[in-house]
Amino acid sequence: MDFVLQIGLALGLLSFCLLILQVILTSRLKTIENIFALDRLTNYHKYLGIIIGTLLTIHITIMISKIEFENFAIDMGQWAYGIVIVNIILALSFPAFGLDYNIWRMTHKTPPLIILFAFIHSYLIGPQLQNIPMKIFWWLLLAIAVFVFLYRNVYIPLFFRKIYNIQSINSEIHNTYTLTYIPQKGKRFEYKPGQFLFLKLKRPGRQSQWHPFTISSSPTQGDILQNTIKQSGNYTNTINQTLKTDKAIIEGPYGRFSILNIDAKSFLFIAGGVGITPMMSMMRYLRDTGDPSAVMLLYANKKIEDIIFKSELEKLPSNFKVVHVMSNESPEYKGFKGHISMEIIEEVAGNILNEADVFVCGPPMMMKKALLILKQLKVPSARIHYERFSI
Known about the structure:
With about 400 residues, this protein is of the alpha/beta class. The protein is built from eleven helices and twelve strands. The strands form two sheets. It has a six-stranded antiparallel sheet. β11, α11 and β12 form a beta-alpha-beta unit. The mean pLDDT is about 90.
């Protein structure tokens, strides 16, 4: 067989295997999520999608140049390729061009079709799949995809999601609100401070979408769950319109961003804006459990009026120290101005930097800069913790 043709066939088979891996990466299987963390899996999924699109394009280019015929199996392959490319284009252009989030979500419900079309295409015409071991392997891959699909679309909705009543909606600052939920039946799920959940609000006549939000409450606060949400998009801009008569569908917990996953001597929290929410959950836990560890919070905002949980931060115990950095405050402001820098970190946390575990959460650019500074300060990567879905 022609060597180039063999390459083309191999790329097609490899692409199908990677498609199955894509389905697994987005399944939210707890075993896998506990190992890699959902933010890493989400980023792997994004880049793997681009790799699959590239491999399939090369595969089709080679096969068109080597084989000239049309049949049902070829049509299945073309449909699978077309849906993959549409998904990639929309995923890459969605944030850049402000496309409707619901359009993106609808296209991301097509993987079952892609898998089915690609399986039919490869199984019917792939010469490598004419032997028994490869046929068994191919059916096994399809079975894995079916299992994951049923897990995400049957098991999770029936057994993992719970309906919560909305106890209160409180304004923290001018554009940020805390929603407090209590279980409609039974008890809330167990979670670690710093973890997040997926939330869908049932609000008749108002927009409702699945979104991930950090849990801002602490497990020490009884049966309640809280999300503190900033108005920053089409969906979150209406968060203040939520009513106590609405319902919340909650799936969780997820994430490995928690002080309970490490054995730390002291803590340095670096937060920006609404990135304070996981830090607040962890600080509430440390406060409520009477942990005597030294805790430093370095919190960046534009103005004093943007400080979320300001009153509560001022009442923390003596082993907590809170330092604010304002990027757009008046000249009369006496505290740190500008952005979080190496000089500020060294000045306020230099005495614990050689032993503290550092947690970072905030806007993408702030996180990039903070992580770079910590690297320059030679803080070991094992003591730096963060979750990132967009940087």
